[in-house]
Amino acid sequence: MSSSSSSNNNSAEAGPSSARHAEANAAVRVFRPPPASNSSTLSGSASASASASSSASASRSSASASAMAMAPALDDEEEELKPTPDELKQAFRSTISGRHGPDAPLLTRALREREEQRLFSSRTKTWENVRIRIRFSDRTMIESTFTEHDTIEAVYRFLDSCLDTTATKGSAVTIYTSPPKTEYSRSDPRLKAKTLRQLGLIPSAVVSLRWQDPQMNANSFPAPLKPELGAKAQDLPLPPSFEPNPTTATATTPTSSSSKPVPKWLKNIVKK
Asked: What is the CATH number of the domain that holds 190?
């Protein structure tokens, strides 16, 4: 009788959130990591871009050195007009103090109030659905929705419902976020009554796992998910590309040098 009553009590303590995740895994989204070939291609492209950038920088440095070597000495009048290092430092300090001192523009205050209002509305807004993604060491992720009143224990129960116990072999696991690294231990009594809102995991968060078995923390260790979940895995969407459009860059490039004055030393070279 005692064992059955204790199990009933545990079921009652589990609450509706655990029942929701234990009944079906239909709401679970599984994202498989990108293939290694894509990673190597991206790294190769990055290396090629870095090499091209370094070559271009070296060419520009050589051209600048050649131009400086060909440039004649400055006249005494031009030499007097050059600011000294102390004058440059003083001008820089004046600029900084003007931005943050009593002479700072009024727009700074307006922007600060707008940012404070945005943060306040985010803290006071009620989030019906809180999206939590759990990332494994091989970059596989599982996702589900919770309420802001759920606790970290509900996230642990969802994780338990997705794991293949044969693969985990009873290894303990700890959920954490980073940076900065913050662990949400399942046995920490201070976290049992705190909601996802109080933990700062709203409106969405990506959490990672630290296993007691060090081998399970390796990047090569496959995510220990149930086979039916692995079968419904989908590819992670690729991050957006921030490379500028060549046509746009060409259109915005100035086509004439009339907007800038020609240096005196360059005029002398052209005359020669």
From this structure: 3.10.20.90
pTM of whole model > 0.85?
no
| Domain membership flag for residue 23 | yes
Q: 38 vs 51, 52, 142, 231, CA distance in Å?
A: 20, 21, 21, 21
Q: Which domain holds residue 21?
A: 14-33+126-235
Residues 221 and 133: their CA atoms lie apart, in Å, by 19
CA distance 41 to 48: 10
Give Cβ neighbours of residue 31 (< 8 Å, ≥ 6 apart): 133, 140, 141, 142, 143, 233, 234, 235, 236
Residues whose CB falls within 8 Å of the CB of residue 26, separated by 6 or more in sequence, listed in order? none
- pLDDT tens for each residue of 172-203: 999 999 988 999 999 999 999 999 999 999 98
State the DSSP code for 257: S
